[in-house]
Amino acid sequence: MKNILEQLKEVTFAILPMSVVIIILQFTIIGMPTDTFIQFLAGVIMVGLGLFLFLVGVHIGLLPIGELIGSTLPKTKKPLLIIGVGFILGVVVTLAEPDVRVLAFQVDEVSSGEISNTILVYAVALGVGIFVAMAMARTLLGIPLKYILCIGYGFVFILALFTPSNFIPISFDAGGVTTGPMTVPFILALGVGVSSVLRGKSSTNDGFGLVALASIGPILSVMILGVIYG
Q: What is the pTM of this model?
């Protein structure tokens, strides 16, 4: 019960400032039509309820199962299995990420269907899957995070030289939307779970940085998509 009240408090303090500012603007500067303003208020209530239920679901479901999977996989002593499961989970969690769907819809609409909604979603998911698998390999081998980040972004800057200019901002936005409410809790919990078994509780910080790596994948995959389309 205490955790539920904390989640309710978090959601209230997250939504209330934005709502107050828009309400003040409504009665001072904007002056939206009444029906539009009522729709906004209804939307705020529904978003608040949705966020509350989502956060409760994350704490009672996503985080525990992510850590459980992460802590169970190393016990199989099969590195390829750990890396393969990391890839699959990275793909399927990204496919469920609402932020990715929003980006894909906007790109499809702006490009008049030239950049397909479906192709962009699967390209982003594939990129995340590959780099989550790499993050699992990094944890297994004990490779410092900074080396992989430098190499990954090195490829990003090199590939940017050959990518059409209209795809570059889309690719970086694709990297940003993967840090959404579905991907972050599950992937982060997975990384911490794997690291806690392989490195011990004193080195669970090795599980962090996985989301940063996962964000590189979509940037590269969308840039490659741009090269193909270009």
A: 0.79
